[in-house]
Amino acid sequence: MFEKFKRWIKTSRQLRRREEISNILEVKNAVVSIKDADYFLARAQVTDVPEILQVEQLVYGATPWNESAFVQEIKRQRDRLYLVVRQNDRLLGFAGCSFNRQNNEAHITNIAITPAFQNHGIGRYLIRKLVRKAALLDMDQMTLEVRVSNTNAQRLYKKMGFLVKNVKKGYYFGDHEDALNMVLDLNYMKGKN
Question: Is 157 a residue of the active site?
């Protein structure tokens, strides 16, 4: 009887934690102001994938991820969060993040803002949103990879507190460009949200 009670307690805790995580990762559709311009922020849906691929193609010239990869990621709502930003019903950018509770690490899987809207604060806004979610989930750090040649993105990440941890040689598919592995310590944020 006691073992059955212990299993029930453990299951109850796990269910409460899942519900808590689900609540933290919830994003309500909203109009947000970024640098005095209004945008529509929402959690990405499977129906956004064709536009996400278009943004990736505009930014990277090719789509590192295919439709199936994005669909699978967006459907994983317990440990993934993908955000989209729109203006006048046009997708301007997106960012995705995975949350690994085993190693207490969040990882920005991808981020892209259409070239015409880069340097408008949208990328910074999306990263801050993901950082806040990771801190609320009690993650210790957030990581990302960035092309060695993408100095503009590196500058943004460094301003936001990311530090270069190491270089991943030949990381990118296709051209085999190296990537900087960057890390943000989230421990300073705990308790401040």
Answer: yes
